[in-house]
């Protein structure tokens, strides 16, 4: 990275340190800040005004917080304890207020003397600590604090300006210490190279970068903060979009074999077999894909589809178009259950067209092979042979397809199902198996808001299927509050019996398998706050199946399905369920994606609060796939007022996956969403909010595309090249390189 030397300077050096070695070490280990530039880009989370006090009523439990408040009263108590048996133990209780709420601070032992002298009624200070509850009241035990008084030179200097920046901090390093460290390095902001082209910056009236850095850390007015944030958001959006635009531009330079279907080939024969007509959406998206396949550059397309919108059919038609042109197509599925399911449904849809080389096969038939890690040696050998000779036009498999031994005759198209379950490296390894780069179609059933698609999958063109095929039934969803209203849960099991009595089937989904306790390593693992609150582990498939068989679902045919079963056993269970030989399938989320049993009409999700919004939406999509209406019951013991219940109510209230994905993104931190999608790399977005800043992202994308088209190597913009190196950290750069 050819960063400006002053900004590239490490915070910790063997000979001289910008900061004290202990502070630099904590910054590196706990906040990921290593250089002066990193520290300057560690922006305040929010600001406090001297005259205005923090809202104490909204403090989150168990989180490290910084509050600005005024001391209401302070009392010193003495007590007897094991360490101080003669009643010499001391406890200082200080009550602070923001004018509306109150918060208790406690100090013990020798730690009481300094605060007892300093925290007098009327004093204002910043307090930092972890929020806990004692005697049903919020408190901070032994908080660190910094007095806010305008009398000594140092304090006036350090807290100059009316606005106090509060930084993302850790228990080891309070916000004000970070603030002081930033004050130390702030003069070097003058040397920051500006990544934005001058024409863009001036055309949009944005501040120069040094001024923006100065104003975000030492604002005098709210307008300073707004101007600085607007500028820094543009940096983040623009640099990321330039990285993606360069990736796209590089792709357009790669050669690929154009793939166009024959006029009367296997695709025509397949379309003639279909018992229904394609929806308008399927036709439109198919045209986009076929247009891409016909070009001399590799297609890179993301196909987003609502649960059950017929993505697999669209992908299969693209695969058949490639077979028509003499090539092969591979579909990569995240699990064996799903690979087997796809193989079964594709061969059923194709009928005799899937019997290439066999007696009874149709004139244009091809062979469809399955390749998974658990196949027997003979079947595997035959599958590999069919691929290398070109006998098999279609292959469906798990990551077993990526192994070195697997060779293709002429790989023309790679379809990746459920993108977020595959690392970029895996997609890349499969793409490397073509003589020239094959075309790539990525399918996801998790609807992604437009801006996230632009931010995360900006190097892929996007097609959206948002129409459900005719004949699909609506799904009714309800939250079942098992703790408040146990009779609702009893009624849920009655509803399952009613569906089975009508000739239908049901799923019961649990978060856990139930045989993990044997593993001593897992027993000591940390639990989430919800688990702590519940004081019980999440419900398990094996336990629930047993209880249901002996209790409310006695007499019904109940089977279990989970990820640790042998693949043959899993397949056998799925086949029996698909054939209607099982009434109720008690499963983990192994059924989340792609499992298609039209006769299954009811789903009961136990401990539904333990699943994410998009996961619940995925699971729910397994019912209502036939002509009978679907029913999804979300069982929870969480209290009505909590965030978990609000999340479940949101899922129950809408079937619109795009709406739910927005809710999901608003409730989780964006870094999680982006991080998951970006091969786990740290999100570089600090001020850009993917949902709120939709316009900035869209405009930055346009500017970036135009800029890269004119100057792909960015020769005229050294500042932008530097920012690409710095902002798109190495992990992310690799991610973008591999696409």
Describe this structure in words.
With 739 residues, this protein is an alpha/beta fold. Helix content is 39%, strand content 18%. The protein contains 28 helices and 21 strands. The strands form four sheets. It has a seven-stranded parallel sheet with strand order 11-12-10-13-14-9-15, with helices on both faces. Strands 16-21-20-17-19-18 form a six-stranded parallel sheet, sandwiched between helices. Strand 18, helix 21 (567-578) and strand 19 (584-587) form a beta-alpha-beta unit. Helix 9 crosses helix 27. 43% of the residues are buried.
Radius of gyration: 30 Å
Question: Uncertain runs with pLDDT below 50, 5 residues or more?
Answer: 1-5, 152-161, 517-534, 669-683, 733-739
The number of E-state strands comes to 21
User: How does the overall form come out from the CA principal axes?
Assistant: globular
**Structure classification:** alpha/beta
How many H/I helical runs?
28
Q: Report the major sheet.
A: 7 strands, parallel
Which oligomerization state do the chains in this entry correspond to? single chain
Instruction: Let me know the average pLDDT.
Output: 80
What's the arrangement of strands in the largest beta sheet?
11-12-10-13-14-9-15
Kindly, what is the distance between the CA atoms of the first and last residues, rounded to a whole number of angstroms? Answer: 21 Å
Name the helicity range. Answer: 25-40%
**Strand-residue proportion:** 15-25%
């Amino acid at each position: 990275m050819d960063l400006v030397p002053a900004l590239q300077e490490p915070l910790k050096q063997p000979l001289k340190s910008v900061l004290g070695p202990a502070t630099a070490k904590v910054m590196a280990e706990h906040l990921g800040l290593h250089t002066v530039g990193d520290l300057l880009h560690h922006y305040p989370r929010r600001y406090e005004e001297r005259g205005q006090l923090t809202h104490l009523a909204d403090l989150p439990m168990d989180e490290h917080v910084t509050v600005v408040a005024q001391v209401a009263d302070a009392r010193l108590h003495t007590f007897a304890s094991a360490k101080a048996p003669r009643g010499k133990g001391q406890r200082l209780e200080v009550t602070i207020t923001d004018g509306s709420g109150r918060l208790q601070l406690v100090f013990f032992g020798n730690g009481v003397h300094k605060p007892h002298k300093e925290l007098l009624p009327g004093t204002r200070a910043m307090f930092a600590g972890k929020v806990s509850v004692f005697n049903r009241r919020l408190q901070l035990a032994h908080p660190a604090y910094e007095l806010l008084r305008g009398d000594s030179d140092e304090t006036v200097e350090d807290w100059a300006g009316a606005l106090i920046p509060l930084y993302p901090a850790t228990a080891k390093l309070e916000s004000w210490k970070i603030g002081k460290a930033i004050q130390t390095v702030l003069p070097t902001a003058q040397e920051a190279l500006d990544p934005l082209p001058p024409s863009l910056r001036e055309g949009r009236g944005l501040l120069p970068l040094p001024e923006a850095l100065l104003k975000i850390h030492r604002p005098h007015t709210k307008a300073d903060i707004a101007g600085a944030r607007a500028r820094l958001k543009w940096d983040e959006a623009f640099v990321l979009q330039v990285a993606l635009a360069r990736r796209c531009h590089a792709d357009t330079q790669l050669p690929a074999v154009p793939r166009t279907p024959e006029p009367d080939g296997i695709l025509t024969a397949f379309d003639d077999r279909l018992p229904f007509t394609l929806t308008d959406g399927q036709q439109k998206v198919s045209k986009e894909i076929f247009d891409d396949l016909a070009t001399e550059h590799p297609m890179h397309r993301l196909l987003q589809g609502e649960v059950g919108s017929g993505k697999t059919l669209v992908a299969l038609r693209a695969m058949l178009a490639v077979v028509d042109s003499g090539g092969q197509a591979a579909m990569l599925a995240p699990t064996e259950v799903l690979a087997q399911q796809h193989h079964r449904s594709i061969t059923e849809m194709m009928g005799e067209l899937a019997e290439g080389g066999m007696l009874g096969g149709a004139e244009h038939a091809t062979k469809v092979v399955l390749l998974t890690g658990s196949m027997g040696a003979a079947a595997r050998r035959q599958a590999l042979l069919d691929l290398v000779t070109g006998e098999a036009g279609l292959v469906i498999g798990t990551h077993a397809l990526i192994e070195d031994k697997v060779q293709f005759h002429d790989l023309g198209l790679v379809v990746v199902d459920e993108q977020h379950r595959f690392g970029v490296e895996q997609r890349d390894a499969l793409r490397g198996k073509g003589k020239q780069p094959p075309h790539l179609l990525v399918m996801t059933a998790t609807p992604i808001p437009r801006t996230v698609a632009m931010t995360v999958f900006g190097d892929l063109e996007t097609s959206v299927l948002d129409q459900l095929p005719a004949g699909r039934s609506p799904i009714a969803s309800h939250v079942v509050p098992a703790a408040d209203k146990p009779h609702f849960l009893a009624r849920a099991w009655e509803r399952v019996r009613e569906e089975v009595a009508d000739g239908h089937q049901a799923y019961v989904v649990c978060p856990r398998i139930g045989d993990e306790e044997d593993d001593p390593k897992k027993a000591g693992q940390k639990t989430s706050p919800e688990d702590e609150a519940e004081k019980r582990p999440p419900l398990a498939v094996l336990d629930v199946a047993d209880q249901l068989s002996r209790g409310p679902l006695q007499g019904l045919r109940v089977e279990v399905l989970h990820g640790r079963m042998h693949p043959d056993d899993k397949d056998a269970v799925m086949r029996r369920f698909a054939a209607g030989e099982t009434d109720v399938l008690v499963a983990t989320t192994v059924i989340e994606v792609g499992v298609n049993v039209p006769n299954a009409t009811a789903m009961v999700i136990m401990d539904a609060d333990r699943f994410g919004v998009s996961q619940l939406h995925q699971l729910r999509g397994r019912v209502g796939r036939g002509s009978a209406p679907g029913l999804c019951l979300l069982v929870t013991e969480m209290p009505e007022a909590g965030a978990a219940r609000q999340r479940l109510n949101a899922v129950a209230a809408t079937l619109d996956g795009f709406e739910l994905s927005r809710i999901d993104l608003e409730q989780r931190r964006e870094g999680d969403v982006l991080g998951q999608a970006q091969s786990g790399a740290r999100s570089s977005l600090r001020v850009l909010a993917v949902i709120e800043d939709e316009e900035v992202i869209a405009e930055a994308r346009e500017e970036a595309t135009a800029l890269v088209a004119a100057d792909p190597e960015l020769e005229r913009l050294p500042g932008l090249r530097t920012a690409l190196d710095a902002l798109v950290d190495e992990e992310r750069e690799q991610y973008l390189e591999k696409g």
